[in-house]
């Protein structure tokens, strides 16, 4: 419970700071609060402040310069765009296979999920196929506390998990807010290459997605690896008069 409260505290601070940036309290390129100022303002530890600032840097709202401090990014972040991502050029029969479902306690994943020291999470790996050819490996990480019964390979299909979320926790995972990043790493883990039947230097796409509940707590962290030829995105501004 203590870790959950701490996680909620850093997210409250982050949300308040983002509101200040969006409302023009700070102009692009202007110097931002120091860690000591935020510690005093919110009466929290350095770790809580650092975590909030770190996420804002990773999301592009802030930039840190060694020896100079933290500044508001000059990048445009308030322009409305329409972003769509889909599986590209799938022509055969699509199927999904759960290949692994285990309880784990990797500290790096627990930090992403905001879990306490004694809490654990399920790591669920699914392989997606197009005409029996693997094109995507999806690895979900979900806190174990959300499930009243043990998950196994047999009962951890995506539809089954999200239905359990809805029944046990009143959360419709398909409509919850999320944040997603996309990159093309130079090297993929052996597990990924083997699952997707790729050579060492073949390109892949990695999508990292955090899903949040109404309080802003992370309820699922997903890493999806895709073959490059199976990935497609479109980014555009809304049509004039739309909405």
Automatic annotation (TrEMBL):
Keyword Mitochondrion: no
GO terms assigned for molecular function: DNA binding; DNA-binding transcription factor activity
GO biological process, any: negative regulation of DNA-templated transcription
Domain of life: Bacteria
SUPFAM superfamilies: Chorismate lyase-like, Winged helix' DNA-binding domain
SMART domains in the record: HTH_GNTR, UTRA
Domain HTH gntR-type: 7-75
Keywords assigned: DNA-binding, Transcription, Transcription regulation
Protein name per Swiss-Prot or TrEMBL: UTRA domain-containing protein
Organism: Citrobacter telavivensis
